[in-house]
Q: What sequence folds into this?
């Protein structure tokens, strides 16, 4: 049994000679009128992780919400209230410039949205992070080179959709973060357990922050395992610091995304 410690944390290396876009481009595909905040939280987290550019492809009203809170993000404003197959070609074209694609945040479970995610996981050739409603839409057999971030219920749905009782054989080129009181990170090389975090992490949106961190780190060329371990530890540790500061669990997912950078800075200093 391997518990994650500070020694396991890996940060991306950044060249002083690099140019815009060379330190990671993340494409986030998600959002619906019911859940406009999820893409915004994931976008902010990916930027805080250090990605140079974040592109949010979302229904137009959701994209405008992202613009209003995060001027750094680029948005692709897709017509309609939900994601659908009519958006597939635009998303696939945009993904050509991305280093990592994050699917699912706040997308909802409209039939056309589920069909889109099924199509994208088969067609995309980039590293993926699959979260939230995308997890409820796909089969694990179709997924390669991805981090999946289910909580227990989402994992049950994923296994039911995949008609599987055991997912271990599909860990060859994927990593699964099973979110819980103690997070379990499943890799082909073994299991890792994360004890950072607290009951305040059950609040809506904290999973979107985790997914955004994963995508930001993968886009900067961390391995799937290192990105998952680092993101999970930092996400929980930030929650722990916020709980102490607020003397309880009144912090929000937006607070979490905002404060990640301070926690990362402190960890980098201690590792020198």
A:
């Amino acid at each position: 049994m391997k518990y994650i410690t500070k020694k396991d944390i890996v940060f991306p290396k950044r060249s002083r000679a690099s140019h815009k876009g060379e330190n990671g481009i993340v494409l986030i595909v998600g959002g619906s009128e019911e859940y406009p905040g999820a893409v915004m939280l994931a976008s902010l987290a990916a930027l805080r992780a250090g990605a140079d550019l974040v592109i949010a492809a979302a229904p137009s009203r959701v994209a405008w919400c992202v613009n209003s809170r995060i001027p750094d993000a680029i948005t692709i404003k897709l017509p309609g209230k939900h994601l659908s197959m009519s958006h597939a070609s635009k998303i696939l074209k945009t993904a050509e410039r991305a280093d990592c694609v994050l699917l699912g945040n706040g997308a909802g479970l409209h039939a056309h949205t589920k069909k889109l995610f099924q199509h994208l996981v088969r067609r995309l050739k980039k590293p993926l992070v699959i979260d939230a409603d995308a997890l409820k839409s796909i089969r694990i057999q179709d997924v390669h080179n991805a981090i999946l971030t289910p909580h227990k219920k989402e994992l049950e749905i994923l296994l039911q959709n995949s008609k599987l009782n055991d997912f271990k054989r599909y860990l060859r080129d994927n990593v699964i973060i099973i979110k819980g009181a103690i997070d379990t990170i499943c890799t082909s090389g073994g299991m890792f357990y994360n004890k950072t975090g607290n009951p305040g992490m059950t609040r809506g949106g904290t999973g979107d922050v985790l997914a955004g961190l994963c995508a930001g780190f993968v886009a900067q060329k961390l391995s799937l395992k290192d990105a998952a371990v680092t993101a999970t530890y930092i996400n929980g540790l930030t929650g722990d610091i916020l709980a102490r500061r607020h003397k309880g669990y009144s912090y929000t997912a937006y607070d979490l995304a905002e404060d990640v950078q301070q926690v990362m800075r402190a960890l980098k200093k201690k590792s020198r």
Notes: The chain has a mean pLDDT of 95. The first strand starts at residue 2 and ends at 3.
